[in-house]
Amino acid sequence: ATTLRAAADAIGKDIGVAVDVNKLQNNAQYRNTIATEFNSLTAENAMKWDATEPQDGNYTFSQADTLVNFAEDNGQSVHGHTFVWHAQTPSWVQGLNATAMRTAMVDHINTVANRYEGRVDSWDVVNEVVSDNNGAMRDSFWLRTMGEGFITTAFQTARAADPNADLYINDYSIEGDNAKSDTIYRIAQGLKSQNILDGVGFQSHLILGQVPSTMEANLQRFVDLGLKVRITELDIRLNTPADANELAQQAEDYRRVTEICAELADCSGITVWGLRDNDSWVPGTFPGTGAALLFFEDYAKKPAYTAVLNAL
Ligand code: XIL
């Protein structure tokens, strides 16, 4: 194959990219590369709550519609991101009491899921609900106001709203076997037993040379529960600027992650969290680091691109 898309199609997997809808609208080369190289799209921001329902009951779908229409025009699937998260959720939601917050959540999920029913194939229903502290639940406004049941409510609502969409729980630092992934495992077991969970999303915001040695076995234990797994937000950052050795190590890290998904029949695919290094959220969030993706700023393919292509 000569494109990621053709290689992924050939093994029946998704190769996805997080899309900046403004660039999709304004930059032809960005648009063409996304159409050529990927068979799955995720909105980097355009389907988050602050984008889709900035005020109570006032839904704004123009950016999300642009992305879904583009995917449809180009024969691409869409992995939806995300209904319930502690970030990028408007303050009007955060200040509600338990009853009103539940109502707002149910209304939001129903409205967004129904709008894209049959066009969005899968959803990150809840995002980042576990903390980094010994696998405790994250201390968010959702947990404080609604209690742990907020997760079940979200999945029950999403299942009823679009029974054909695959429903995922999504988080970071759960790629390896650790306290946080143990908690995700327990939550996933409970949701799966109620038949309201289909998969686990492993964000995989990784650091150069640090693909967890337990990653394959960890994904396998979720597959053994009868769930799909998915690499949902892959990037591999390093201290910038990158030298040739670092780009080679990065290619090896991308190769390994791709191999893990390719070898697992129940790994639905890989989404990289942005197109070019300069499109990435990484430099803004982890200062001094970057160069985390598959394309250089001029759209030239990095060694990591070739590694993914060959591992698919
Ligand atoms: C990031 C986007 O890439 C940025 O553009 C935005 O400013 C903040 O959010 N985990 C997630 C994603 O689930 O939604 C985040 O995306 C990155 C971390």
From TrEMBL:
<dbReference type="GO" id="GO:0031176">
    <property type="term" value="F:endo-1,4-beta-xylanase activity"/>
</dbReference>
<keyword id="KW-0119">Carbohydrate metabolism</keyword>
<feature type="domain" description="GH10">
    <location>
        <begin position="1"/>
        <end position="311"/>
    </location>
</feature>
<keyword id="KW-0378">Hydrolase</keyword>
<dbReference type="GO" id="GO:0030247">
    <property type="term" value="F:polysaccharide binding"/>
</dbReference>
<keyword id="KW-0858">Xylan degradation</keyword>
<keyword id="KW-0624">Polysaccharide degradation</keyword>
<comment type="similarity">
    <text>Belongs to the glycosyl hydrolase 10 (cellulase F) family.</text>
</comment>
<protein>
    <recommendedName>
        <fullName>Beta-xylanase</fullName>
        <ecNumber>3.2.1.8</ecNumber>
    </recommendedName>
</protein>
<feature type="active site" description="Nucleophile">
    <location>
        <position position="233"/>
    </location>
</feature>
<keyword id="KW-0326">Glycosidase</keyword>
<keyword id="KW-0732">Signal</keyword>
<dbReference type="GO" id="GO:0045493">
    <property type="term" value="P:xylan catabolic process"/>
</dbReference>
